[in-house]
């Protein structure tokens, strides 16, 4: 058992409820309950250590290269939060069992809830700030799923999206902040960050890091001006609100402030921003809480307000303030979870949460009413409940602080105003629902819920009282260690209900009286506020989202015009823009390698190549001529290879050239022979400019490469070709042996292309010309006699040549690729001369199978090396004495090359014969034939 | 010699780029094919230019760099596969759409969004 279990149990346990979908709901609930309970048992083993001042840790290496490790710690602050998360989690699971209706998918709910629980635990226990961030984002995602649980309701979807967008954006800011902090500290481990606190505070990037960090915290904890998402997240099922929006998720921001207080806190900037934001949030939240007619809306804004209070205390950051903040975190979790569950019970039993409809429920649900009054009194800060004590501490801090010099006096006054509003909305929650006249008929006749549904609320109410009456026994231990963690020094907390007559007590008293008065005068307040009704956060948010998405689609429309020419031009211009400056930077283009003299053959060849290239480009309107010019280019390229000592390349290029020109002529049959409309002169001019620049860049680069001395790894290949690969043709040995894996990949690509083409041709209805471009019908003789005879002669010879080229390939120019293409061209000639049907009658081979067999032979040859415990594609060769032939080498590489050979034939034939079939099957018949 | 070679490759590239920027599918495919020739020549030349040095053991004293040759050999075959695929795509488009224009600015730009 270790710390890891506490997180892993709910993380993997989240799968369990999904598996149990078909079992009765009670079993699902019990299994789900067992998971946090197991985690609590483990936690109990560590808690004494933490309370004694130790910090249990756990370290699992994850991605050390990124500084990201699965490092966990359980200091006082973590313990406080882990207890809240697990404890309230257990209550929520039990409560949800009664809350969800039978139509709701309980398994999905529990899975999301446990996932959320795991991510919250991860945040508070992470000892690595990147790990913490990962869990932070996971809470955003899982809370999105939970808020949108009733995905059929558009409110739920919108609320979930708003929460995700806001907290997600904050999460990105947080990541940036954490990266800066980690960079300054030199490590992402929290202990290292803690040790580097002074360096970080004095670093010039400190303000940026702090603001990014605070953005993360404020969005998560719904602090002003990001408070707008929380009320809309109330579209979630009430157990979710009770869990996420009272005890856990919104407290994550607070946790972040507390966690980083020893690292980032105490500076002027921290003090100013955090305190003021907290104060504003507290007042804004409290004011809006009073105005809401929806029970959960009221609670949501009151949560915003209380979070503001905690935030302000953490901003002040003195010992007393931190203790007050942590104490209030516990108290708020108790009374707010209780209140949310009460609101859920009322909604569940009566069918509405609208305080304008609810009244006089006291007589109908006395148990619920009593419990509600206890937790609400705690929220209002009425003695002897726990809320009173933390509010006293808060008011005390408000009095003691001297943050704003001569203006510091306004802080206690505003604090009292906040407290008064808090009293007012607490009264409203109780009075409007349970009293305020006689019961009026509601959608359902309300009554007290099953005992087990109100049990969690009762338990929380008991806590409210117990903490209030015996604070030292209940919470001083955990507060000691938690405050020590936040303040980075050891602290001994002293709490008592009664502090004697002092200023905070007077302020409390004023607040209660003022609260009652405000509540009494609430109608005027509502009337006053009605003039601002048009301002709804949701609409503003939607409008902003809409505007951003409009701008994005406008930009997209401008970029995505559907014009391939524009896209290509854009890419090419980018190339020019990126390349030109770096080329300008090069001082010397010419390397140290001396140029070779130009011989006559090269000169003529280059001239022909250049002229043919220009002709291809300029004659593109007459497509047949263009194609012929292209074939000249291809031929000259082949000759260049031959000239520069690459016989294999020359042969390959030559046959590929033949095959591709045939293919293009076939394609031309289905295409317009001429380009009808010419581009505008403007466009042609632009294209020439782009083309010249690109050509110039390529020529420059090529020149720079050619004139610099070569450093190559090929000496190894040359030295080992004969001894290791058993062949003297180094290029072929590289292909089938040294780099055989590349070749295997390559023939696979060829096969995939052929298969893709096969699919493209499927059910193709090509455009069929009935005559040639000048309107003449096709010739009646389909298969000229001369061609037929020559083709029949050529076929056996070509096959023989192919076999010869194939066999000698390992030692002399040749090999599977070239042989395959030669065989394929001879076959194609048969098709051209005699037609598809004629060939099919005599030579009925399924090219797909041929191709697949080829790839398989090549792959199996590779696998074969495993039988001899050698790595994939290790080749082996020996010399055999063959009858008639004499001594002849046999290598497994030859088998591999056979695979290549078959694949090339299969793929080429598959492409061409399939395509060729198109021309003959639909061949227009000559009139009168 | 090196200057001549690089100028030739540059011109070949420029001509192909010009063709790729045309508005009809057939010249674009031809341009792609020719560009693959230019690229192959370029890659091949990273082994520097050697005359009479075919990398067949026992035939010469010094050999041309065999590695770029092996790479270019596969590149030629892959280039063929690509040419074949794009030309069939062009034919298919002509059959389905009825035009061989590569941009859809005229026909359905309004209907798109």
From TrEMBL, chain A:
The NADH-Ubiquinone oxidoreductase (complex I) chain 5 N-terminal domain, residue ranges: 66-110
Give residue ranges for domain MrpA C-terminal/MbhE.
Answer: 683-770
Question: InterPro entries from the entry?
Answer: CPA3_Na-H_Antiporter_A, MnhB, MrpA_C/MbhD, MrpA_C/MbhE, ND/Mrp_TM, Proton_antipo_N
Return the protein name: Monovalent cation/H+ antiporter subunit A
Quote the cellular component terms of the Gene Ontology held in the record: plasma membrane
Superkingdom, natural source: Bacteria
User: What organism does the record attribute this protein to?
Assistant: Idiomarina aquatica
Q: Which NCBIfam families match?
A: PRK12648.1 (NF009288)
Describe the location of the Na+/H+ antiporter MnhB subunit-related protein domain by residue ranges. 787-910
From TrEMBL, chain B:
Q: Name one GO cellular component term.
A: plasma membrane
Look up and give the membrane topology term.
Multi-pass membrane protein
| Predominant location | membrane
Q: Where in the cell is it found?
A: Cell membrane
Q: Which UniProt keywords apply?
A: Cell membrane, Membrane, Transmembrane, Transmembrane helix
Write out the transmembrane intervals: 6-21, 28-51, 71-91
Task: Return the InterPro entries for the record.
Answer: CPA3_antiporter_subunitC, NUOK/Mnh_C1-like
Q: Which family does it belong to?
A: Belongs to the CPA3 antiporters (TC 2.A.63) subunit C family.
Its name, as the record gives it, is Na+/H+ antiporter subunit C
Gene source species? Idiomarina aquatica
């Amino acid at each position: 058992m270790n710390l890891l279990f506490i997180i892993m149990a709910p993380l993997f346990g989240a799968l369990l409820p999904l598996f149990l979908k078909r079992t009765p709901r009670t079993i699902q609930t019990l299994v789900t309950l067992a998971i946090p309970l197991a985690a609590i048992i483990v936690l109990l083993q560590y808690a004494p250590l933490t309370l004694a001042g130790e910090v249990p840790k756990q370290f699992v290496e994850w991605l050390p290269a990124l500084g990201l490790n699965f490092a966990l710690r359980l200091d006082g602050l973590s313990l406080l939060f882990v207890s809240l998360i697990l404890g309230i989690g257990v209550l929520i699971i039990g409560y949800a069992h009664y809350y969800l209706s039978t139509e709701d998918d309980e398994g999905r709910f529990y899975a999301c809830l446990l996932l959320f629980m795991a991510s919250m635990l991860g945040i508070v226990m992470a000892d690595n700030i990147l790990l913490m961030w990962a869990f932070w984002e996971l809470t955003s995602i899982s809370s999105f799923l939970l808020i949108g649980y009733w995905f059929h309701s558009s409110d739920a979807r919108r609320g979930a999206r708003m929460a995700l967008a806001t907290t997600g954006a904050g999460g990105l800011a947080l990541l940036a902040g954490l990266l800066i902090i980690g960079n300054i500290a030199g490590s992402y481990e929290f202990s290292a960050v803690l040790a580097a606190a002074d360096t970080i505070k004095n670093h010039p990037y400190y303000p940026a890091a702090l603001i990014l960090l605070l953005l993360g915290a404020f969005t998560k904890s719904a602090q002003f001006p990001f408070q707008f998402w929380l009320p809309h997240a109330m579209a979630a099922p009430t157990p979710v609100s009770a869990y996420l929006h009272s005890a856990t998720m919104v407290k994550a921001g607070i946790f972040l402030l507390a966690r980083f207080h020893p690292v980032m806190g105490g500076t002027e900037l921290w003090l100013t921003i955090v305190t003021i934001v907290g104060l504003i949030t507290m007042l804004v939240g409290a004011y809006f809480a009073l105005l809401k007619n929806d029970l959960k809306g009221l609670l949501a804004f009151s949560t915003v307000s209380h979070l503001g209070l905690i935030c302000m205390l953490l901003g002040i950051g003195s010992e007393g303030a931190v203790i007050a903040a942590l104490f209030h975190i516990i108290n708020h979790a108790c009374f707010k979870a209780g209140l949310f569950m009460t609101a859920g019970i009322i909604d569940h039993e009566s069918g509405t949460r609208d305080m304008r409809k609810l009244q006089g429920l006291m007589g109908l649900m006395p148990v619920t009413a009593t419990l509600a009054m206890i937790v609400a009194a705690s929220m209002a800060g009425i003695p002897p409940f726990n809320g009173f004590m933390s509010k006293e501490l808060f008011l005390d801090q408000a009095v003691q602080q001297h943050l704003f010099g001569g203006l510091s006096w306004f802080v206690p006054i505003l604090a009292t105003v906040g407290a008064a509003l808090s009293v007012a909305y607490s009264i409203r929650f109780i009075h409007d629902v349970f009293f305020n006249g006689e019961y009026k008929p509601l959608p359902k006749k309300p009554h007290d819920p099953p005992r087990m549904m109100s049990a969690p609320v009762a338990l929380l109410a008991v806590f409210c009282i117990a903490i209030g009456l015996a604070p030292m026994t209940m919470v001083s231990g955990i507060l000691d260690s938690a405050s020590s963690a936040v303040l980075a020094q050891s602290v001994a907390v002293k709490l008592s209900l009664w502090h004697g007559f002092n200023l905070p007590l007077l302020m409390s008293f004023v607040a209660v009286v003022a609260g009652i008065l405000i509540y009494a005068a609430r109608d005027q307040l509502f009337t006053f506020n009605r003039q601002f009704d048009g301002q709804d956060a949701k609409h503003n948010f939607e409008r902003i989202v809409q505007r951003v998405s409009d701008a994005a689609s406008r930009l997209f429309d401008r970029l995505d015009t559907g014009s391939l020419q524009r896209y290509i031009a854009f890419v090419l211009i980018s190339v020019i823009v990126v390349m030109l400056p770096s080329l300008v930077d090069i001082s010397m283009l010419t390397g140290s390698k001396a140029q070779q003299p130009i011989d006559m053959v090269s000169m003529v060849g280059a001239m022909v190549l250049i002229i043919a290239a220009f002709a291809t480009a300029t004659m593109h309107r007459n497509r047949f001529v263009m194609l012929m010019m292209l074939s000249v280019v291809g031929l000259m390229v082949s000759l260049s290879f031959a000239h520069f000592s690459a016989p294999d390349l020359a042969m390959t290029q030559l046959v590929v050239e033949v095959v591709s020109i045939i293919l293009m002529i076939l394609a031309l049959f289905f295409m317009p022979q001429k380009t009808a409309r010419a581009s505008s002169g403007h466009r042609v001019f632009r294209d020439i400019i782009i083309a010249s620049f690109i050509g110039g860049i390529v020529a420059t680069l090529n020149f720079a490469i050619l004139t610099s001395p070569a450093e190559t790894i090929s000496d190894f290949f040359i030295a080992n070709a004969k001894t290791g690969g058993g062949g003297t043709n180094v290029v072929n040995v590289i292909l089938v042996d040294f780099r055989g894996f590349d070749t295997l990949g390559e023939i696979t690509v060829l096969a995939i292309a052929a298969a893709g083409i096969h699919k493209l041709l499927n059910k193709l209805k090509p455009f069929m010309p009935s005559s040639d471009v000048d309107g003449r019908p096709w010739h009646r003789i389909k298969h000229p006699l001369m061609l037929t005879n020559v083709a029949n002669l050529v076929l056996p010879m070509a096959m023989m040549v192919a076999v010869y080229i194939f066999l000698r390939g390992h030692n002399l120019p040749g090999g599977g690729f070239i042989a395959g293409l030669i065989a394929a061209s001879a076959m194609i000639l048969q098709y051209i001369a005699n037609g598809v049907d004629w060939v099919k009658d005599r030579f009925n081979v399924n090219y797909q199978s041929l191709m697949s067999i080829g790839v398989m032979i090549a792959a199996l040859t590779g696998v074969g090396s495993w039988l001899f415990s050698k790595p994939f594609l290790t080749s082996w060769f020996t010399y055999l004495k063959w009858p008639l032939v004499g001594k002849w080498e046999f290598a497994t590489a030859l088998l591999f090359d056979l695979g290549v050979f078959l694949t090339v034939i299969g793929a080429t034939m598959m492409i061409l014969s399939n395509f060729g079939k198109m021309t003959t099957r639909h061949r227009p018949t000559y009139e009168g034939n | 010699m090196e200057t001549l070679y690089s100028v030739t490759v540059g011109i070949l590239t420029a001509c192909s780029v010009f063709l790729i920027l045309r508005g009809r599918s057939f010249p674009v495919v031809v341009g792609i094919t020719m560009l693959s020739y230019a690229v192959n020549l370029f890659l091949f030349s990273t082994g520097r230019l050697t005359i009479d040095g075919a990398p067949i053991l026992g035939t010469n004293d010094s050999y041309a760099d065999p590695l770029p040759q092996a790479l270019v050999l596969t590149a030629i075959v892959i280039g063929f596969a690509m040419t074949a695929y794009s030309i069939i795509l062009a034919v298919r488009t002509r059959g389905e759409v009825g035009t061989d224009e590569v941009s859809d600015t005229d026909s359905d730009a309004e209907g798109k969004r």
